[in-house]
Structures are given as C-alpha cells and as structure tokens.
Specification:
Layout: H1 2-20, H2 27-35, H3 38-41, E1 48-50, H4 57-74, H5 78-90, E2 92-96, H6 99-121, H7 127-140, E3 141-145, E4 150-151, E5 160-167, E6 171-178, H8 179-183, E7 191-193, E8 199-201, E9 207-208, E10 212-213
Parallel strand pairs: 1-2, 2-3
Antiparallel strand pairs: 3-4, 5-6, 6-9, 6-10, 7-8
Helix pairs in contact: 2-4, 4-5, 4-6, 5-7, 6-7
Length: 221
C-alpha cells in the first residue's frame, strides 16, 4: 500500500508540474533567499507577497521570522504580543492557482501562529483571537492566477487584496484594492503631488471600512 500511494503521489506531482509548473523549494534555499532581504523579514509590518505561494514554503518562514521578533520584544505582555503578532499576519500575502495549495498554506500559517503563541505566552490563544487571525489569512491568501490577475473560480473576477493599516495598535483601517491596479502603470491623471513636490501615484481603493478593533474585523466580510 505504501508503494502504491507513493507511486500515485509521484504521478499527481508530475501532472501538476506539467499542468501548472508547480515546483517545491527546499527549506535551505528558502532561508538563503530570505537572508538576502533579512532586514525586511525582521520588520514586523513589512509586507510580503508571494505570487505563486504553493503550500507556503516562503510565507511560513517569513511568519516565523516575524514572530521571533515579536517574541523577543513583546512576550512579557500578552496584550502587546497579541497586537504585534496580529500585525505580522496582516503583512503576509499570497496567490496560488490551486485551491488545495491555498488551503494548505493557510492551515500551515495557522499552525505556526498557534504554536508560536503557545511557546511565547505559555497558553493557548482565545477562539476570538484565533478566528480573527484566520479571517485575515483567508483574505490575504488568494486562489488566483498571478498572470491573468484574476481569481480562479466560476466568476473569474479580478483579484482584490485588503490593506490593513494599524491605528494605535487596537484599531485597523481596511481598504480593498484591485490587484491589477496596484501593479499596472498609472495614467497621468492618477498622479498627485507628494509632500516633497514630486508626482506620486496613489492607487484608489474600491472600498473602505471604518476603523475597527482587530478582534472585530471578521464582522466585515
């Protein structure tokens, strides 16, 4: 039975490589690549997007690095730890064309988050906190095609990402942006003058939400 399952797994893997170009990066390679931007991985609020996140090889390592900083700085206070650990989660984004990869990625990130929480504070996180963290991940890790910039579902609608901006550690301002508009060249009319007098493009959100406590963000689907 073990050999049969291994053979089936190899066939499925080959099919996925052929159909979707799916490859897996070893942990050693992941860490070596992340070390090239080590300073950013140690910034709790530094945003990362993996456009072909797979099961989360890069995103899980990034989260671990961020949570280590949170632990080192804030583990003596549960309130402070929870606020900054939550901020770390809001900064991680991913896209993958396969739904099972998206599900596995979210689950892996949640497992790491819960384990790091328990190791740092010597207790389990509350259900309300857990649910709020998972809500963020379900909004930030998208099943879509990074080439067409659209979701992979029956609607085939553009990918939309949420920007989570922390206000005083407790409240968050959510803005929804169409991913394509975040990366495409802007029309001249979209440029505005910055404080330094230079022209800067500010993308326009398609929806904004009122400042909300981070444990209540899930109330706004």
């Amino acid at each position: 039975m073990e050999n049969t399952n291994k053979t089936i797994s190899q066939i499925v893997s080959k099919q996925r490589v052929t159909n979707h170009g799916e490859v897996f990066t070893s942990p050693k390679e992941v860490n070596a690549m992340l070390d090239l931007v080590k300073q950013e991985t140690q910034r709790i609020d530094s945003r990362f997007l993996e456009p072909a996140c797979g099961k989360g090889a890069f995103l899980t390592k990034i989260l671990k690095r961020k949570l280590k900083i949170v632990k080192d700085r804030y583990s003596k206070s549960q309130i402070e730890y929870e606020r900054y650990a939550f901020l770390a989660v809001t900064s991680i984004y991913g896209i993958d064309i396969l739904q099972d990869n998206v599900t596995d990625c979210i689950n892996s990130l949640m497992t790491i988050f819960q384990q790091e929480y328990k190791d740092s504070l010597k207790k389990d996180c509350s259900k309300e906190y857990f649910d709020s963290v998972k809500f963020i991940l379900t909004k930030n890790i998208i099943c879509g095609d990074a080439l067409t910039l659209k979701r992979v579902d029956e609607l085939n609608i553009p990918i939309v990402f949420c920007e989570w901006s922390s206000i005083n550690g407790k409240l968050y301002k959510r803005k929804d942006f169409i991913f394509e508009q975040l990366i495409e060249s802007s029309l001249a009319s979209d440029f505005e003058k910055s404080d330094l007098g230079k022209e800067v493009w500010f993308p326009k959100p398609i929806k904004e939400y009122p400042p909300t406590h981070y444990l209540k963000l899930k109330d706004f689907k």
